[in-house]
Structure formats: C-alpha cells, structure tokens
C-alpha cells in the first residue's frame, strides 16, 4: 500500500492509485503512532473496491465478508490483531475508524478477476484517553538476520506483570533467517499456567505472515519441535491474567536449515538426515541438528585434543 515511509500529509492508497489497482495483489502495511496516541483513519473522497456477491449471485456491497477484493484494518501490528473492519464496494467506510493500541495493521487484497479504482485515505494521531483503552499488555521481539538463537519467556512476562492494571497479555517473537533457508524451532521446556485451557493461555506458531491460520496452536502440557517451510516465523504467546503469566515458562532455540540430499553442493553442513545447516552453526555450543551431530563431533575432538596434550606433556 502506498504511503510509506510516513510523511505529512499522512496518507495511504491502493496500489497503482489513482489508476485501477491490479489483480492478484496482497499488500500489507503497519502504522505506528507515538506513545500515548491512537490512530484515526478518514476516507474523504473516493472508495471503489469490487463488491461481493450474495448467494443468488447478485452484487451486495453491504456484505460483511468481502471475500473477493477488500481493505482490512486491524487494531494492532499483526494479522491476528482485533479486526476493525473489512471494506469493499462503492460507499465510503464509516467516519469513526480508529486503532487504540497504537498500531494499525492494513491489508489490501485483490483476486484474479475484476479491478476497480481503489481508494485513498488520510490518517492522523490523536491523544488517547486512558479510560478507553482495554487492559491488555504486550511485548514484541524482532530476532532477524541471524542463523540461530534462543527464546526464553521469563523476562518478557515479568516485564508485562510490572503493570498491575493489565489483565490479558500477548507477546510476539518474530524470527527471520536468510531467505534461502528455513526455520527449525526446538522447544526445550513448555509449561503453561493453565494447561489444557486454550481460552486462558496458548502459544501459536505462524509461518511467513500472520493473517493465515497458525500452523500450530499449543495449549497442552507438552510441545514438540517443528520444521517449517519458511524463513520467517512468528510465535504468539497469549495469557489471560498475571497469575497464569507467573506460572508460565517456555524456552526454545531456533536454527536456520535447508533440506537437500547433498548438503555440500550448497556449501552447507550435513546433519546426516538430509537436513543441512550453515557451517557457522557447527560447534557453537547449541544444538542445530536434530540428532546433535553438529555438537557431538566437537566433543570427540575436544576429548582427543585433551588426551593429545596430556600424553605430550613432559615435566
């Protein structure tokens, strides 16, 4: 969606505007307000997005689903944030459109059929009134541009619990490795405050984006590792209250990997099971191969070196 980076006047519009938008478009943008402000969106002049059909095959611009082409707005920075509205047709959306979280997630989608004139909109930041905000806390972590790393929830949840007014909380970790690789997530410990009560606490795993359904939703007493098919991963941890947060502990490590029969052909290290990892991850004191081959060899080498120097030492 046009309008990025943010300059005054604050506007965004459909791709190719003022010309017709193209087919098969999927554009996402996130607006972030200054702390203490909320985001208001105003459609002033023009709005034309393909209407939707009802069951009789008749156009119905008031259909709330808008399954063909649409503009979708959410109150938060992700595709799973609370829905503000999904808009299509020829009527200007309602005047009072706002995001109170300090973020607005915007998605424009068009299918492969009809194209129309699109839209343009202005947005502004207005001072928020604290009594209008829900008691929902959150934290966001961006773990990008590395080959591996570790995640541990204690410090994040303790920070959220410092605000006694908060009830629900949602912490999100974005993991991203180089685009020619994928993400392997290995969960070491998984303890939820109220296991098997999915409405109270859960960990969701998304790959690639956050507007599709999660590839996994974990809310039981255990969790297994997952090999994803994408280089970007989102972890979403939801907890209903501070008591649950105090009893929740999750630790995991993630690693970049690829699937090849011949790892050396791609200048990668072979884990022995058609999983390949970058050579930088070998002997780094973290498990990056499913069967620990990347670290097991290092232990043998260290033992051999110790014996060698011991036998070679003459006082």
UniProtKB/TrEMBL annotation:
The keyword Repeat applies. It comes from the Eukaryota. CDD domains: CUB (cd00041), LDLa (cd00112). Disulfide bonds join 271-289, 283-298. It holds the Pfam family CUB. Keywords: Disulfide bond, Repeat. This is CUB domain-containing protein. It comes from Pristionchus entomophagus.
């Amino acid at each position: 969606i046009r309008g990025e980076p943010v300059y005054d006047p604050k506007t965004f519009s459909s791709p190719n505007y003022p010309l017709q938008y193209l087919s098969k478009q999927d554009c996402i943008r996130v607006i972030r307000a200054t702390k203490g402000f909320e985001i208001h969106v105003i459609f002033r002049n023009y709005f034309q997005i393909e209407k939707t059909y009802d069951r009789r095959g008749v156009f119905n611009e008031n259909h709330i689903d808008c399954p063909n082409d649409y503009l979708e707005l959410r109150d938060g920075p992700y595709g799973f944030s609370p829905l503000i509205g999904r808009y299509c047709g020829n009527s200007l959306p309602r005047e009072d459109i706002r995001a109170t979280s300090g973020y607005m997630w915007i998605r424009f989608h068009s299918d492969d059929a009809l194209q129309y004139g699109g839209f343009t909109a202005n947005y502004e930041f207005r001072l928020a009134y604290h009594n209008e905000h829900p008691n929902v806390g959150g934290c966001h972590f961006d773990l990008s541009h590395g080959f591996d790393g570790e995640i541990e929830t204690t410090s994040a949840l303790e920070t959220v619990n410092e605000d006694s007014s908060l009830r629900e909380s949602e912490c999100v970790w974005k993991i991203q490795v180089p685009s020619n690789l994928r993400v392997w997530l290995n969960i070491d410990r998984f303890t939820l405050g109220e296991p098997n009560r999915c409405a109270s606490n859960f960990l969701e795993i998304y790959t690639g984006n956050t507007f599709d359904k999660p590839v996994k939703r974990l809310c039981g007493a255990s969790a297994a590792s997952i090999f994803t098919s994408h280089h970007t991963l989102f972890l979403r941890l939801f907890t209903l209250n501070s008591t649950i947060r105090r009893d929740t502990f999750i630790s995991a490590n993630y690693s970049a990997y690829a699937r090849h029969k011949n790892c050396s052909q791609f200048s990668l290290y072979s884990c022995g099971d058609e999983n390949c990892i970058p050579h930088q991850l070998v002997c780094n004191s973290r498990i990056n191969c499913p069967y620990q081959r990347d670290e097991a060899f290092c232990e043998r080498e260290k033992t051999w070196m110790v014996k060698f120097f011991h036998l070679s030492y003459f006082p």
